[in-house]
Amino acid sequence: MKITVVGAGAVGASCAEYIAMKNFCSEVVLVDIKEGFAEGKAMDLMQTASLNGFDTKITGTTGDYSKTAGSHVAVITSGIPRKPGMTREELIGINAGIVKDVTANLVKNSPEVIIIVVSNPMDTMAYLVHKTSGLPKHKIIGMGGALDSARFKYRLAEALGSPISDVDGMVIAAHSDTGMLPLMSKATRNGVPVTEFLNAEQQNYVTEETKVGGATLTKLLGTSAWYAPGAAVSVMVQSIVCDQKKMIPCSLMLEGEYGQNDICLGVPAIIGKNGVEKIVDITLTAEEQAKFVEAANAVREINGDLKY
Ligand code: NAI
């Protein structure tokens, strides 16, 4: 199966690397607008194949979308990342134009493609892909919750002093510093609610550090992160290609689910060979429900700035 990754920058290349190393698809095509860049990244990655033991073929192209024809899944990471002090929402003007063009090229060459949207502000970019691609809604999936949940689990494990594999937790709602909703009420350590181990102050620390997880890294790195975003995308792609039907929080077009309409927002979903197999309805506390609505209102306002 062929996977296309548009944008061979930090996130795109990391995503291609994790996909290749997991050895579950035959080909990854990297596309970038910068002359020779995707070809160079592909060659460098291919030269790790014998070292890392994978058979996935990675190729690169400078904007020749005919090379992406017949892709099963395409990941859009093209665009600019944020710099320290910037919000994801400030990227909208430039990234919307890029995402719209890229989507048209992808669909023209792979009419059956499933698209994973990564470029920020991601919930709004996913909405833009819904409005412009002509693809059915189960084939458009925004990546945010998979990454934010991994960051939540990292902070939970830190606060609990536990191995990360012992903890479970999920982040839903918006992929933004203010709109993220780490579901503390449902987080567990070995099946036991973490609220039994963490006091209110510790819970608040975990929640707040999760919400600014991306901003903390942007401050440290001078640009946004790439390892965990790349790994998060690779988990989603694998769940589609191998029809694993994993439950992953993703930004999806809501039509009545969670009380919202005509908006892409992070909700848990079963991800399998058709893309979104099912949106999972979980019961939120009154406080979580109120925060979900608040996040939706903020995303809706940003969507209002889109021109398409
Ligand atoms: P980067 O600057 O390293 O890479 C972006 C690449 O896109 C560059 O190589 C650039 O040449 C390419 N590009 C620009 N316009 C293009 C076009 N029209 N066609 C093809 N390629 C094009 O940026 P990075 O760090 O990889 O981030 C990419 C995007 O992903 C940003 O918008 C960032 O905010 C977002 N992001 C989203 C995350 C999420 O959880 N949804 C997590 C991390 C980053």
UniProtKB/TrEMBL annotation:
Keywords annotated in UniProt: NAD, Oxidoreductase, Tricarboxylic acid cycle
Record-annotated active site: 175
Pfam name, any one: Ldh_1_N
InterPro entries xrefs: L-lactate/malate_DH, Lactate/malate_DH_C, Lactate/malate_DH_N, Lactate_DH/Glyco_Ohase_4_C, Malate_DH_type3, NAD(P)-bd_dom_sf
Top EC category: oxidoreductase
Domain (Lactate/malate dehydrogenase C-terminal): residue spans on this chain: 147-299
GO MF terms, alphabetically ordered: L-lactate dehydrogenase (NAD+) activity; L-malate dehydrogenase (NAD+) activity
Keyword Secreted among UniProt keywords: no
Protein residues bound to substrate: 82, 88, 120, 151
Protein name: Malate dehydrogenase (NAD)
GO biological process terms on file: lactate metabolic process; tricarboxylic acid cycle
Residues that coordinate or bind NAD(+): 7-12, 32, 95, 118-120
Statement: the UniProt record of this protein carries the keyword DNA-binding: no
Domain Lactate/malate dehydrogenase N-terminal: start-end pairs: 1-142
Family: Belongs to the LDH/MDH superfamily.
Gene3D superfamilies, sorted: Lactate dehydrogenase/glycoside hydrolase, family 4, C-terminal, NAD(P)-binding Rossmann-like Domain
